[in-house]
Structures are given as C-alpha cells and as structure tokens.
C-alpha cells in the first residue's frame, strides 16, 4: 500500500543525525488548488563531492539517494494532484450548484412566493368586499325603514281628508282649470267662494272672473296724489272707502280688472283675501303648464294644503297689519 511504500522509502533514505537541521522549521498549512499543485517541483541539490577516501562508494550512494528522491517526488506529486483535482469541485465544502442556488432562488420558489402574495391580496380584497356588503345591507335596511316611516307619516297626514288626496291625484294626471272637476269644485265651495264673497256682489263676481282669467292687477296707492278716474270708479269707492265692502277704511291698494281703466280702492282685509286666492290659482296653473318638476305628487298636495290654509285664515279675517 501507499503507507508501506512511503515508510520503506523513508527508511531507505534516512538521514544521519549530522544532516538534520539544528533548529525546527514549521510551515503554515495552506490548501492548494490544482493550478498551484501542478506547478510544484522538488529540487534536490546535489551534495558536494567528498574529498575523503571512498569517493566511488560515496558517488554510488548519492546516485541511489537521488534516484529515490526523484521517484518519491513523482509519486507524491501525482497522488497530491489526483487528490486535489478530485476534491476541487467541493474544495470549500460547497459545489457550484449549491453556490448558484444560494445566489439566486429557483423558479419554483419565486412562483410559490408570488402565489402566496396573491393569496394574501385576494383574502384582503375579500375582507374589504365583505365589509362593503355589510355596509350596503345596513344602509339598505335604514332606507327601507325611513321609507316605511315616511309612508306611515304621509298616511297619518292625509288620513283626515283621503278623498281630497285621491281627487288631487286624479286631477294631477289630467290637470284642468275647469271648476266643475271634483278637486277644484270642492275647493271652490270651501275656500274660494267664501274668500271672494263681499257686500258688493257684482264687483266681487268681476273680481273672481279676473282672478280666473289672470287679468287682475293690484298696485299700492302710496303717497302720490289721487289720479283722475272715471265717475263709475269713484262711485265704487275712494281712498277712504273700500269698494268691495262699502265701509270707510284706509285703502292702501287699488285693483284694476282686465282692460278697464277703472281703479277700485280696497282695504287690507279685502286685499289679503284676493291675494290668497290669486296665490292658489297661480300654483295650480303652474302644475297645469308642467312648470312644477322638482316636487312629487305628495309635495304638490302639501303645497295645495298650505295655500288652502292661507285662504282659510284670510276669510276668517287674519292678515298682516302691514298689508
């Protein structure tokens, strides 16, 4: 074996004690690669010829020792190179493939990481969507509850006169200014006629006709001098006498009917009655012409009820003093 061969060579070439170095020499261990090992060479210095007797025997011994050194050098060099080359692929305990795997992750690892990230993002999106669905469901319940409360409130408001509400809905589908329709006929009987009923019935009828035809005008008297008017207009009243009631009142307004040039002075009480009826006719005329678009049928009916309330207060004598 290799060990026996080395031991035999060492014993054959054993040095004398006189040839050993006087001081120990230590070399620091260092691992060599293939390139360095291949460049190793062993140099054996030929010993100086001895000048003593037995020159021939000494030369023969030196030649044999030199041959042994060369054989040992070639054997060790070949064994070392073979061992170093065999282990060169893993000289630091790591192969090239291992280093490559450490430097860059494999395609499978990248795919797994991307898949895990997509799973996390999908789970997050699903949680957010679930929260939004719950919020939408809650808002939908609130909307349904508010709608139900509004319906109940509307029903309670219109419970007293549900027949008038139904009549208004029918009139709203086909609006008309004909006083004979059920909706307007009831308002005429309960509000319009009582408001425009005055002592001077002939003038009161003319006022109602002008209101229906939208030809009545009202203007304040102010502090200007009284204008010259026809005798018939003066007979129906003056600045100190109401033309509709015949009572002595301070008249701050006067009315003009259609194309007539006559002016009739009216008291604040009569003026408020006339204006409340005019406001009602103006609103239902807007509905007939399709100008009321921002309100639904319930809001329209509520506005009609407010205008009827003003006519009711006017016929009872409630009006603002500044009128």
TrEMBL record:
CC annotations in GO: Golgi to plasma membrane transport vesicle
The family this protein is said to belong to: Belongs to the SEC2 family.
GO biological process: exocytosis
Entry protein name: RAB3A interacting protein
Species whose genome carries this gene: Papio anubis (Olive baboon)
An example Gene Ontology molecular-function term: guanyl-nucleotide exchange factor activity
Any matching Pfam family: RAB3A-like_C
The entry's keywords: Coiled coil
Ranges annotated as spanning the membrane: none
Coiled-coil intervals: 108-156
Top-rank taxon: Eukaryota
Upper classification of the organism: Eukaryota, Metazoa, Chordata, Craniata, Vertebrata
């Amino acid at each position: 074996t290799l060990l026996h061969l080395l031991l035999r060579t060492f014993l054959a070439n054993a040095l004398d004690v006189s040839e050993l170095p006087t001081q120990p020499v230590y070399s620091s261990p260092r691992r060599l690669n293939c390139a360095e090992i291949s460049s190793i060479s062993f140099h054996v210095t030929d010993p100086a010829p001895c000048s003593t007797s037995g020159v021939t025997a000494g030369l023969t011994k030196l030649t044999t020792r030199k041959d042994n050194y060369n054989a040992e050098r070639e054997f060790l060099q070949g064994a070392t190179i073979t061992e170093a080359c065999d282990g060169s692929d893993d000289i630091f305990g790591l192969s090239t493939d291992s280093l490559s795997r450490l430097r860059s992750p494999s395609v499978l690892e990248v795919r797994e990481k991307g898949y895990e990230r997509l799973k996390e993002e999908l789970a997050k999106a699903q949680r957010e969507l679930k929260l939004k669905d719950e919020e939408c469901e809650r808002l939908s319940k609130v909307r349904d509850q508010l709608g139900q409360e509004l319906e109940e409130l509307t029903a309670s408001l219109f419970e007293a006169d549900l027949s008038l509400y139904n009549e208004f809905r029918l009139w709203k589908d086909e609006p008309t200014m004909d006083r004979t329709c059920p909706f307007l006929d009831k308002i005429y009987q309960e509000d319009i006629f009582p408001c425009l009923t005055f002592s001077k019935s002939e003038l009161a009828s003319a006022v109602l006709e002008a209101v229906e035809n939208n030809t009545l005008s009202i203007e304040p008297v102010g502090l200007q001098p009284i204008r010259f008017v026809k005798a018939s207009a003066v007979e129906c009243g003056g600045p100190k006498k109401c033309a509709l009631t015949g009572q002595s009142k301070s008249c701050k307004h006067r009315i003009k009917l259609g194309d007539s040039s006559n002016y009739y002075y009216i008291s604040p009480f009569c003026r408020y009655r006339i204006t409340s009826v005019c406001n009602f006719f103006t609103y239902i005329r807007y509905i007939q012409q399709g100008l009321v678009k921002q309100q639904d049928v319930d809001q329209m009916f509520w506005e009609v009820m407010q205008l009827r309330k003003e006519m009711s207060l006017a016929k009872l004598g409630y009006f603002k003093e500044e009128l």
